[in-house]
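In response to reviewer comment 3 from the previous cycle, which asked for concrete evidence that the modeling workflow produces usable outputs, we include below a single protein chain processed end to end. The sequence was submitted unchanged, and the resulting structure tokens are shown without manual editing.
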Amino acid sequence: MATSNWSILDTKYAKQVNSLIAPDFTGVSSLIARQAILKGYCPKVSVHSSPTADHVARNYGFSNFLSFLRFFEYDLADSDFCLPSDKGEPNRIVIKFVDSIEHIIETQDANKGSFQGQSAPEKPAGRFPELYGEHVLTNTVSRHMDRVNREIEKTSFYTNARSFSWNAKDLESEGSKVQDSKVQNSKVQNSKVQDSKVQDSKVQDSKVQDSKVQDSKIQDSKVQVEQLEGSIYLSMLSKATSSNTLVPFEFINHPVVNLVVITADITIRDLQAVYSDQKRKYLDLHARFPWLDTSCMMTLFLILVDTDAVEQFQALSGLQDYCVSVLGEDSIGCTFSFEKASNSDAGLPLEKIHADSLDFAAAAKLRPDSMLSVEIAKKVAKPIHSAVDTIVYKKMVPFLRRKIQKWHVEYVVPRKSLTGRLLGAGRLWGSNSSHRSFFSFGYGKEKSESSESGAGDADSTLYNAQQGYYPSASPFVFLRRLGDWYFMMRDYKNAYTVYEMLKKQYLADRAYGYLSSLQEFMIVSLLLGASCKVNPLEKATDGKRVSGITAKIVSDVIAPFLDSSFYSYLSRCSLKTYTIRLTLVTAELFLVLGQSVAYCHERLFSRYALSSEACFIESQKLFKRLVDSKLVDNVCTGVLMQRLSYIYYCNDKPGVSGSEEDNRLQRKSYYTEFNPEKLTFTPTSHFGASRSRKSILWMLLCAKTLDPVINRTQVTLVLWYIENELRQTFHLGPESTVAWPYRKGSLFVALKASLE
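The workflow returned the following structure tokens.
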């Protein structure tokens, strides 16, 4: 079985990370988890497919063409998302295909999650929809854990773990705990038959060989179990960051490209009807939601051409000319066979799509047989891969760059210049402004009162306090969209600069939803920008030192913004899922930064940068806050506790060499003879740096929270890990009845008894 249907764990980048940072049972490396975070913040491409295009997808076993394209988006994820190119820009962009905007809005209305205003006028902010439903995160993690448990129970590692009844003498670390016992049994048997015939000796040698083969299988299954365990946390992190919910205060989930999929046999009249109908729907949506601006999207036609129909090749050029000359939109062609039966080539396995990145109801519709991987002939997969690359690198990325440059000149440059600041102050405190000061002498009072009551022109650029949004024509909306597009293009420095321009305005207008989201992305921009500058997979160079995140930045910027957004999300906006995303992503990014610093040479960083231990402490604080806040259920809490255990486990990784003084004390002199009674000095440079006991304690709390009755397989593996660590690190076993884990009535003993 491949790795739990999670493509990020199967990429080349993940293998490079695992070669540097060895995988552990407690969790997956934070560098791999960062890929899941960036995947959640990637640009979205909405797909509107015609009935004929959906019919082509159904020929290959999919419900519509959107589900067909979702199997190709992971082809772009086989590299480090943060790795820059020669021009300083990301050389790989990953995208996500989503439903059309009108379908997303209809789904939000059906789930009663659509944007609605507060009925009480005294509340300044409106009610916004959550990222996902109330129990979606719990169901996502629980169902994925059930799938993982079923796969783990099939492995030989789990079978041996159960058969040896938690005897760590028989189960060593690194997945080969049975090896010593089997080799010892083989030696005993060899001693008994050493005087036997040569034929019996050959049989015994074959048994030893079989034992080695079995041990190798157990080792391989242990690696598989570790990856399966790591996918549980990745599924939670992916679901917490990925959502299609459209809200007015952030544009990460707003699609940047509108992909219209048609077939080449469509007529010009039908093409015009499809285009006009879509424009009409967008106008209706803008009338209902003044904050929604679909004019910022790029409309792109994807024309499918059947290789078995020669007349469609001739129609392709005519359709493309009509799209450019009449509709004013760009288009690309994709040529492959529409009938699956005609494909005789060998099947091409595609990247696996993770069901937890979608709703489970939608995942069931993708494939009726609930298969999350499919094989398609190479002559079909190759043109689709080429079309996706064209959409991303030849159409979407140039479009984003043009828009970013245009908005930067129109909105950022005037505000950064001295003249622009003076004019901005005049607009802010002038007679037509809603703000009142000592120098306004009462002018603008009527305007302010009308703005606070929610009245006024619908096309106004002022903040609507009653409904809680800025209209789409407001310059603050364009600035926020510009910052989010910088963020999606992974230009975190410019994104932070744009976000900083909006903070005072949001605070003055009491737009707490906007302010909370703004501060969240300012934090994430700082942490992602710092972590992307440090690549532990590359060799250290003697170039310019990286300043990184300093203690002053944490205390003056990150901590106040985090506390403010945490409070505003929960108390002012009642957005629980956004609070979970804020805390979880920030905690994980601190772990990313700490692990990157730990595995890089110290000369790469300035002396003011946070140490790896300080980053680990900040990450631990946030994970503990999320656990104590009771925002998630027991299953998710258990997963968070396991992640906390992994942070403590990483505290002294990698092991460092002793100091020069320790090396001098341990160095043997040439003239000194060996004296067994001579006093020796223990190296103290790394003494007390590990946090093994705290790691074990959090794993013990994880087993208690998961409940052995509900999640027997997970608790079984957690207790095996605890007993293995106790024997390997502290030399404690079941015979150590005085030690705290094995005392009568202890939690560890009670959990073991519940599994019997």
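The first strand starts at residue 44 and ends at 49. We consider this sufficient to address the reviewer's concern, and the full set will be provided in the supplementary archive.
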